[in-house]
Each structure stands twice: as C-alpha cells, then as structure tokens.
Amino acid sequence: MDAQAVGNIIQVFVGLIALFAGGAAIVVASRDRRNAREIAEKDRRIALRQSRLLFEWEAAKRLSVLEARGGHVDPVISKDIGAETMALVALLGKDRVPEMWARRVGKTDAELRAFVLDESQPQYLRDAVEAERAVQSIAVELDQLAES
Predict the structure, then answer these.
(1) Fewest C-beta in 10 Å: which of 18, 70, 79, 105?
(2) How far apart are CA 142 and CA 93, in angstroms?
(3) Do residues 116 and 133 touch, judged by C-beta distance below 8 A?
(4) How is 38-67 classified by DSSP, letter by letter?
(5) pLDDT per residue over 14-68, tens digit each?
(6) Residue boundaries of the structural domains of the chain
(7) Taking the C-alpha atoms of 84, 85, 88 and 92 in order, what is their torsion angle to the nearest 10 degrees?
C-alpha cells in the first residue's frame, strides 16, 4: 500500500469520526433544549403559583383587617365593608376560608346561578353574586393554569 492509499484511508476515518461527532452533538443539543424547556415550564408554574399566593396573601390580610374592625357605626361604610368582605371571601374561596364561606355564601355554584337568574331578588344583589362568581371562577382558572 502506498502513501496516497494510506492517506485516503485516514481521511475516510477522519470523515466518519467527524460524522459521528456531529450526530452526537445533535443528540446532545436536542436533549439540552428539551431539558431547558422542561426547566422553563417548571419555573413558569412556580412563578404563577407564587404570584397567586402573594395575591391571596394580600387579600387575606385585607380580609383580616376588615374582620378585626368589627364593623362601623356609619351604615354606608358598614355596607362597603360588608361588600368588600364578600368579594374577598369569594376570591379566597371555600378552601382558604371555609367557615366564612359557609356562613356568608353557604350555597353551591348551581344555587348561586339560580339566585342570579331569580328576578324576584333585587338587581344589585344579583349583580353582586354574579361578580363574586366571576371572581371565584377566575381564581379557579388561575389555580388550573399554575398546575398545568
């Protein structure tokens, strides 16, 4: 075998090694991208959950302050406090404030829907219940988004 044939064989081996190295690099890069996507997805879920918890924490603090006041002598302010309290209870939901939920809401979603549709009830109450249902529905969606 002459020097040119040996050179050609070496070039073929070098080409094959380069081909295998390129394939290995592609596999490693694809696994790296997949891992990066998984880490980013996990970070997104954690950030969403943390954001939701901070929002609930602020709502719970506000509810705590309103409840600690024990009402107000001015009936207008007392109604405002009651309305805000109901909105906060709806936002926090029966898992966070089960006793308050049972005492202040005490109805299933179907019963609340029926109340909203009941034309014998005052419109402002029907609107308030519909708004509270919207708050609770959004809270549920946020929880589902954080868990997905």
Answers:
(1) 70
(2) 13
(3) yes
(4) HHHHHHHHHHHHHHHHHHHHHHHHHHHHHH
(5) 888 888 888 888 989 999 999 999 999 999 888 888 888 898 999 999 999 999 8
(6) 3-147
(7) -170
- Give the other-Cβ count within 10 Å of 63's Cβ: 20
Helix, strand and coil in the chain, % to nearest 5? 90, 0, 10
How far apart, in Å, do the first and last CA atoms of the chain sit?
Answer: 65
64-70 long-range contacts (CB < 8 A, ≥24 apart) are none
CA–CA gap between residue 51 and residue 41 (Å, rounded): 15
- What are the pLDDT digits (tens) for 67-80? 988 878 888 988 88
State the residue for tokens 């419109």: 123
What are the pLDDT digits (tens) for 91-140? 888 889 999 988 888 788 888 889 999 999 999 888 988 988 888 888 78
Using CA atoms, how far apart are residues 90 and 96, in angstroms rounded to an integer?
Answer: 10
